[in-house]
């Protein structure tokens, strides 16, 4: 990533209109991987340290990292049918059991709407 910085930037600039890129795609992918565990402000700090160490010519900021990582489309290779495995547990737990607590506490009572109690709109 660090040795091919200029070559990768030149390849990215071919045919591009507008402001040229300052950071190669490999560096942004590296930051995207780190972003799984740390926030964008920390990515900016890491880039500053890499610049101080002389590994990269200049460091990107919070906004540049956010835009480039946010616009990135992940390259995911889906497995074939032969490679896929499925696992299940027998606990029967659900992530969304919204009404079951109320049913357990108050019972399975369904109340019918009778209209207004204090006015004569039903008359």
Coarse morphology:
elongated
What integer value in Å does the Rg equal? 28 Å
- Distance N terminus to C terminus? 80 Å
User: Which blocks of ≥5 consecutive residues have pLDDT under 50?
Assistant: none
Largest sheet descriptor: none
Mean pLDDT: 78
Number of strands: 0
Q: Give the percentage of residues in beta strands.
A: under 5%
Helix count from the secondary structure assignment: 5
Helix content: 25-40%
Task: Give the topology string: H per helix, E per strand.
Answer: HHHHH
Q: What structural class results from the helix and strand content? A: mainly alpha
What is the compact description of this entry?
This protein has a domain at 5-13 and 22-70. 39% of the residues lie in helices and 0% in strands.
Keywords:
single chain, about 120 residues, mainly alpha
